[in-house]
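Section 5.1 Outputs to date
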Amino acid sequence: MKSVLRQILLSALLGATVCGAGGCAKKIEVVDEIPAEYRHAVENGGTVTLFTYPTKDYFGDESPIEKEAYIYLPPNYDENKKYNVMYLLHGVGGDIWEWGMTGDNSDVKKMMDNLIINHDIDPFIVVTPNGRSAKDHGSNSDMQSFYLFGKELRNDLIPYIDANYATYADYSDNYDITASREHRACAGLSMGGMQTTNIGLCECLDLFSYFGGFSSCPTTYTSDEIAKRLEAFPDYDIKYFYNLCGTDDGIAYWSHSAAMDGLCDKTDKLTDGKNYLWQTRSGGHDFNIWFLGFYNFAQIAFTQ
Protein backbone atom coordinates (compact mmCIF):
# COMPACT_ATOMS: atom_id res chain seq x y z
CA MET A 1 0.00 0.00 0.00
CA LYS A 2 2.83 2.39 0.85
CA SER A 3 4.39 1.90 -2.58
CA VAL A 4 1.05 2.45 -4.34
CA LEU A 5 0.38 5.67 -2.43
CA ARG A 6 3.88 6.90 -3.19
CA GLN A 7 3.40 6.28 -6.90
CA ILE A 8 0.04 8.09 -6.91
CA LEU A 9 1.59 11.10 -5.21
CA LEU A 10 4.55 11.16 -7.59
CA SER A 11 2.21 10.85 -10.56
CA ALA A 12 0.26 13.86 -9.43
CA LEU A 13 3.32 16.00 -8.76
CA LEU A 14 5.86 14.90 -11.35
CA GLY A 15 4.16 12.73 -13.92
CA ALA A 16 3.93 13.38 -17.63
CA THR A 17 1.67 11.17 -19.72
CA VAL A 18 3.13 10.22 -23.09
CA CYS A 19 0.51 9.96 -25.82
CA GLY A 20 0.66 9.19 -29.49
CA ALA A 21 -1.39 7.82 -32.34
CA GLY A 22 -1.73 4.50 -30.55
CA GLY A 23 -2.99 6.06 -27.33
CA CYS A 24 -1.31 6.94 -24.06
CA ALA A 25 1.76 5.13 -22.79
CA LYS A 26 2.91 4.74 -19.20
CA LYS A 27 3.15 7.92 -17.16
CA ILE A 28 6.76 9.06 -16.93
CA GLU A 29 7.84 9.82 -13.38
CA VAL A 30 11.12 11.25 -12.19
CA VAL A 31 12.24 12.08 -8.67
CA ASP A 32 15.14 14.05 -7.19
CA GLU A 33 15.91 11.48 -4.48
CA ILE A 34 15.82 7.69 -4.50
CA PRO A 35 13.39 6.37 -1.87
CA ALA A 36 15.40 4.82 0.95
CA GLU A 37 13.41 1.59 0.86
CA TYR A 38 14.58 0.97 -2.72
CA ARG A 39 18.22 0.81 -1.56
CA HIS A 40 17.68 -2.21 0.71
CA ALA A 41 18.51 -5.82 -0.16
CA VAL A 42 15.65 -8.10 -1.19
CA GLU A 43 15.32 -11.77 -0.31
CA ASN A 44 15.26 -14.07 -3.34
CA GLY A 45 16.18 -11.21 -5.63
CA GLY A 46 17.94 -11.35 -8.96
CA THR A 47 21.45 -12.62 -9.62
CA VAL A 48 24.66 -10.94 -10.76
CA THR A 49 27.30 -13.00 -12.54
CA LEU A 50 30.48 -12.43 -14.50
CA PHE A 51 30.75 -13.74 -18.06
CA THR A 52 33.34 -13.72 -20.84
CA TYR A 53 32.61 -13.09 -24.51
CA PRO A 54 34.67 -13.03 -27.72
CA THR A 55 35.29 -9.72 -29.45
CA LYS A 56 38.08 -7.96 -31.38
CA ASP A 57 40.79 -5.39 -30.80
CA TYR A 58 38.99 -2.67 -32.77
CA PHE A 59 41.49 -0.05 -31.61
CA GLY A 60 44.33 -2.16 -33.01
CA ASP A 61 44.51 -4.83 -35.69
CA GLU A 62 41.06 -6.35 -35.04
CA SER A 63 42.63 -9.56 -33.78
CA PRO A 64 40.39 -11.78 -31.63
CA ILE A 65 40.33 -11.03 -27.90
CA GLU A 66 38.10 -11.86 -24.94
CA LYS A 67 36.53 -9.43 -22.52
CA GLU A 68 34.49 -9.73 -19.35
CA ALA A 69 31.21 -8.13 -18.30
CA TYR A 70 28.70 -8.45 -15.49
CA ILE A 71 25.06 -9.31 -16.05
CA TYR A 72 22.03 -8.91 -13.80
CA LEU A 73 19.25 -11.44 -14.30
CA PRO A 74 15.95 -10.58 -12.59
CA PRO A 75 14.27 -12.67 -9.87
CA ASN A 76 12.84 -15.92 -11.20
CA TYR A 77 14.66 -15.50 -14.49
CA ASP A 78 13.12 -17.96 -16.95
CA GLU A 79 14.91 -19.02 -20.14
CA ASN A 80 11.51 -19.64 -21.73
CA LYS A 81 10.49 -15.99 -21.37
CA LYS A 82 11.71 -12.90 -23.21
CA TYR A 83 13.46 -10.01 -21.48
CA ASN A 84 14.42 -6.48 -22.43
CA VAL A 85 18.12 -5.60 -22.01
CA MET A 86 19.82 -2.44 -20.76
CA TYR A 87 23.51 -1.92 -21.53
CA LEU A 88 24.91 0.24 -18.70
CA LEU A 89 28.24 1.95 -19.39
CA HIS A 90 31.00 3.22 -17.08
CA GLY A 91 33.16 6.34 -17.01
CA VAL A 92 36.66 7.10 -18.28
CA GLY A 93 38.49 5.85 -15.19
CA GLY A 94 36.13 2.98 -14.49
CA ASP A 95 35.61 -0.55 -15.67
CA ILE A 96 32.97 -3.26 -15.47
CA TRP A 97 32.96 -2.81 -11.69
CA GLU A 98 32.31 0.94 -11.61
CA TRP A 99 28.54 0.67 -11.30
CA GLY A 100 29.18 -1.71 -8.41
CA MET A 101 27.09 -4.40 -10.08
CA THR A 102 29.42 -7.16 -8.95
CA GLY A 103 27.41 -9.11 -6.38
CA ASP A 104 24.52 -9.17 -3.95
CA ASN A 105 25.49 -5.87 -2.30
CA SER A 106 25.14 -3.97 -5.57
CA ASP A 107 23.06 -0.78 -5.46
CA VAL A 108 21.94 -1.42 -9.04
CA LYS A 109 20.78 -4.91 -8.06
CA LYS A 110 18.96 -3.60 -4.98
CA MET A 111 17.15 -0.96 -7.00
CA MET A 112 16.24 -3.41 -9.74
CA ASP A 113 15.00 -6.02 -7.26
CA ASN A 114 12.85 -3.47 -5.43
CA LEU A 115 11.44 -1.95 -8.60
CA ILE A 116 10.49 -5.42 -9.81
CA ILE A 117 8.93 -6.75 -6.60
CA ASN A 118 6.95 -3.52 -6.18
CA HIS A 119 5.68 -3.89 -9.77
CA ASP A 120 7.12 -0.53 -10.78
CA ILE A 121 8.81 -2.12 -13.80
CA ASP A 122 8.69 -5.30 -15.80
CA PRO A 123 11.78 -7.45 -15.17
CA PHE A 124 14.69 -6.79 -17.52
CA ILE A 125 18.36 -7.72 -17.88
CA VAL A 126 21.22 -5.29 -17.17
CA VAL A 127 24.71 -5.69 -18.68
CA THR A 128 27.75 -3.69 -17.51
CA PRO A 129 30.55 -4.13 -20.07
CA ASN A 130 33.98 -2.56 -20.44
CA GLY A 131 33.58 0.33 -22.87
CA ARG A 132 37.10 0.22 -24.31
CA SER A 133 37.24 -1.74 -27.56
CA ALA A 134 40.89 -2.72 -27.41
CA LYS A 135 43.19 -5.54 -26.41
CA ASP A 136 44.49 -3.24 -23.68
CA HIS A 137 41.20 -2.31 -22.04
CA GLY A 138 42.43 -1.61 -18.53
CA SER A 139 41.49 1.51 -16.58
CA ASN A 140 44.60 3.38 -17.74
CA SER A 141 44.48 2.39 -21.42
CA ASP A 142 44.11 4.83 -24.33
CA MET A 143 40.76 6.60 -24.00
CA GLN A 144 40.43 6.75 -27.79
CA SER A 145 39.33 3.11 -27.68
CA PHE A 146 36.04 4.29 -26.11
CA TYR A 147 35.02 5.77 -29.46
CA LEU A 148 35.07 2.39 -31.23
CA PHE A 149 32.70 0.66 -28.85
CA GLY A 150 29.86 0.78 -31.39
CA LYS A 151 31.64 -1.90 -33.43
CA GLU A 152 31.87 -4.17 -30.42
CA LEU A 153 28.22 -3.65 -29.53
CA ARG A 154 27.04 -4.38 -33.05
CA ASN A 155 29.35 -7.24 -33.97
CA ASP A 156 30.03 -9.01 -30.69
CA LEU A 157 28.41 -8.06 -27.39
CA ILE A 158 24.76 -7.72 -28.39
CA PRO A 159 24.86 -10.90 -30.54
CA TYR A 160 26.46 -12.76 -27.63
CA ILE A 161 23.74 -11.66 -25.20
CA ASP A 162 21.02 -12.51 -27.73
CA ALA A 163 22.54 -15.94 -28.32
CA ASN A 164 23.00 -16.86 -24.67
CA TYR A 165 20.17 -15.21 -22.76
CA ALA A 166 16.40 -14.98 -23.05
CA THR A 167 16.04 -11.74 -25.01
CA TYR A 168 13.44 -10.72 -27.61
CA ALA A 169 15.87 -11.40 -30.45
CA ASP A 170 15.36 -14.35 -32.76
CA TYR A 171 18.89 -15.67 -32.68
CA SER A 172 18.85 -18.12 -35.56
CA ASP A 173 20.09 -18.39 -39.12
CA ASN A 174 17.83 -15.41 -39.86
CA TYR A 175 19.17 -13.30 -36.97
CA ASP A 176 18.49 -9.61 -37.53
CA ILE A 177 20.07 -7.53 -34.78
CA THR A 178 17.87 -4.54 -35.63
CA ALA A 179 14.59 -6.41 -35.31
CA SER A 180 14.53 -6.25 -31.50
CA ARG A 181 15.82 -2.69 -31.08
CA GLU A 182 12.68 -1.67 -29.19
CA HIS A 183 13.74 -4.11 -26.48
CA ARG A 184 17.18 -2.59 -25.91
CA ALA A 185 18.33 0.44 -23.91
CA CYS A 186 21.71 2.12 -23.64
CA ALA A 187 22.73 4.27 -20.66
CA GLY A 188 25.87 5.44 -18.96
CA LEU A 189 27.65 7.80 -16.60
CA SER A 190 30.22 10.44 -17.61
CA MET A 191 32.22 8.93 -20.51
CA GLY A 192 29.55 6.22 -20.68
CA GLY A 193 26.98 8.98 -21.06
CA MET A 194 29.03 10.33 -23.96
CA GLN A 195 29.03 6.84 -25.48
CA THR A 196 25.27 6.59 -24.98
CA THR A 197 24.77 9.78 -27.00
CA ASN A 198 27.57 9.66 -29.55
CA ILE A 199 27.50 5.91 -30.16
CA GLY A 200 24.20 4.50 -28.91
CA LEU A 201 22.00 7.30 -30.23
CA CYS A 202 24.01 8.71 -33.13
CA GLU A 203 25.67 5.55 -34.52
CA CYS A 204 23.46 2.70 -33.36
CA LEU A 205 19.91 4.01 -33.47
CA ASP A 206 19.07 0.88 -35.43
CA LEU A 207 20.11 -1.19 -32.38
CA PHE A 208 18.56 0.75 -29.48
CA SER A 209 15.34 2.64 -28.79
CA TYR A 210 15.88 3.95 -25.24
CA PHE A 211 18.76 6.14 -24.09
CA GLY A 212 19.87 7.51 -20.73
CA GLY A 213 22.78 9.92 -20.27
CA PHE A 214 23.99 10.83 -16.79
CA SER A 215 26.60 13.64 -16.55
CA SER A 216 27.61 13.02 -20.17
CA CYS A 217 31.13 14.21 -21.01
CA PRO A 218 33.74 15.20 -22.00
CA THR A 219 33.25 15.10 -25.80
CA THR A 220 29.51 14.58 -26.04
CA TYR A 221 28.23 15.93 -29.35
CA THR A 222 26.52 19.31 -29.29
CA SER A 223 22.82 19.44 -30.07
CA ASP A 224 23.57 20.59 -33.62
CA GLU A 225 25.79 17.56 -34.22
CA ILE A 226 23.31 15.16 -32.64
CA ALA A 227 20.51 16.44 -34.86
CA LYS A 228 22.70 16.19 -37.95
CA ARG A 229 23.73 12.61 -37.22
CA LEU A 230 20.18 11.51 -36.53
CA GLU A 231 19.36 12.36 -40.14
CA ALA A 232 21.20 9.16 -41.10
CA PHE A 233 18.38 7.13 -39.51
CA PRO A 234 15.16 8.28 -41.21
CA ASP A 235 13.39 4.97 -40.56
CA TYR A 236 14.11 4.66 -36.83
CA ASP A 237 12.36 6.44 -33.99
CA ILE A 238 13.54 7.25 -30.47
CA LYS A 239 11.28 5.83 -27.81
CA TYR A 240 12.87 7.93 -25.06
CA PHE A 241 15.99 10.01 -24.43
CA TYR A 242 16.44 10.78 -20.72
CA ASN A 243 19.23 13.00 -19.41
CA LEU A 244 20.34 14.03 -15.92
CA CYS A 245 23.19 16.23 -14.73
CA GLY A 246 24.08 17.97 -11.48
CA THR A 247 24.14 21.75 -11.70
CA ASP A 248 27.32 21.86 -9.59
CA ASP A 249 29.15 19.43 -11.87
CA GLY A 250 32.23 21.31 -13.05
CA ILE A 251 33.30 18.37 -15.20
CA ALA A 252 30.19 17.53 -17.21
CA TYR A 253 27.59 20.28 -16.95
CA TRP A 254 28.96 22.38 -19.79
CA SER A 255 29.20 19.49 -22.27
CA HIS A 256 25.92 17.88 -21.29
CA SER A 257 24.11 21.23 -21.47
CA ALA A 258 25.54 21.88 -24.93
CA ALA A 259 24.18 18.51 -26.05
CA MET A 260 20.70 19.36 -24.77
CA ASP A 261 20.61 22.99 -25.91
CA GLY A 262 17.51 23.35 -28.10
CA LEU A 263 17.81 19.72 -29.20
CA CYS A 264 14.08 19.15 -29.64
CA ASP A 265 13.89 22.16 -31.98
CA LYS A 266 16.63 20.73 -34.18
CA THR A 267 15.27 17.24 -34.85
CA ASP A 268 11.75 15.92 -35.40
CA LYS A 269 12.67 12.71 -33.59
CA LEU A 270 12.44 14.30 -30.13
CA THR A 271 9.63 16.19 -28.41
CA ASP A 272 10.00 17.57 -24.91
CA GLY A 273 7.51 15.89 -22.58
CA LYS A 274 6.81 13.10 -25.06
CA ASN A 275 10.04 11.16 -25.58
CA TYR A 276 12.66 13.52 -24.15
CA LEU A 277 13.59 14.80 -20.70
CA TRP A 278 16.46 17.01 -19.50
CA GLN A 279 16.53 16.83 -15.71
CA THR A 280 18.86 18.88 -13.55
CA ARG A 281 19.26 19.09 -9.80
CA SER A 282 21.93 20.21 -7.38
CA GLY A 283 24.85 17.84 -7.29
CA GLY A 284 28.30 17.11 -8.63
CA HIS A 285 30.04 14.48 -10.72
CA ASP A 286 29.31 11.50 -8.52
CA PHE A 287 27.04 8.57 -7.78
CA ASN A 288 24.46 10.69 -5.99
CA ILE A 289 23.53 11.80 -9.50
CA TRP A 290 24.35 8.59 -11.36
CA PHE A 291 22.35 6.21 -9.17
CA LEU A 292 19.44 8.65 -9.32
CA GLY A 293 19.76 8.68 -13.11
CA PHE A 294 19.67 4.90 -13.20
CA TYR A 295 16.69 4.72 -10.82
CA ASN A 296 14.66 7.14 -12.95
CA PHE A 297 15.72 5.68 -16.30
CA ALA A 298 14.99 2.12 -15.18
CA GLN A 299 11.34 3.19 -14.87
CA ILE A 300 11.32 5.00 -18.23
CA ALA A 301 12.97 2.33 -20.35
CA PHE A 302 10.77 -0.16 -22.21
CA THR A 303 7.53 1.67 -21.40
CA GLN A 304 6.62 3.50 -24.60
